[in-house]
Amino acid sequence: MGIAKAAVRLVLCHSYLVxxxxxxxxxxxxxxxxxxxxxxxxSSFRGQKVVIYFYPKDNTPGCTKEACNFRELWSEFxxxxxxxxxxxxxxxxxxxxxxxxxDLPFILLTxxxxxLVASSFESYGLKKFMGRExxxxxxxxxxxxxxxxxxxxxxxxxxxxxxxxVLSDLAKDD
Length: 174
Prior knowledge:
single chain, alpha+beta, Glutaredoxin, 5-stranded mixed β-sheet, two-stranded antiparallel sheet, 6 helices, 11 strands, 30% helix, disordered N terminus
């Protein structure tokens, strides 16, 4: 990549420069604890596709719809050897309760503030709600291919149809 092109893709984020992720880029590797407080490393899923979806909070209406949409289509993801990882700031106990309450068959990971993993995926930043500004998790979804490269990016997510959208878009690529 030439210097000029690289300079265009750098942005200032929380007082430091980060790369703007694009399709074809290597996904930032990470290790985060799951719902059982066991470390999970993204690179351990090489050889299969991985859907990473960032969401604000367990047991909230939109996040529950999104999780249940992935659950409803889980057999399709599983039959296509696609792993699903949900990431929020919630801890292992919250994730465990969320999984049990809604019978979620996939992994939920904890990215505690300052949410370095979400930040590396440009999915943590300034949000506004009812006139209040705060730092929070953004609802974004990424598909990582078998080689660890970003295949699809969704920055405008409709929680209740995200899983269906991912499967539909992946079917177009087959």
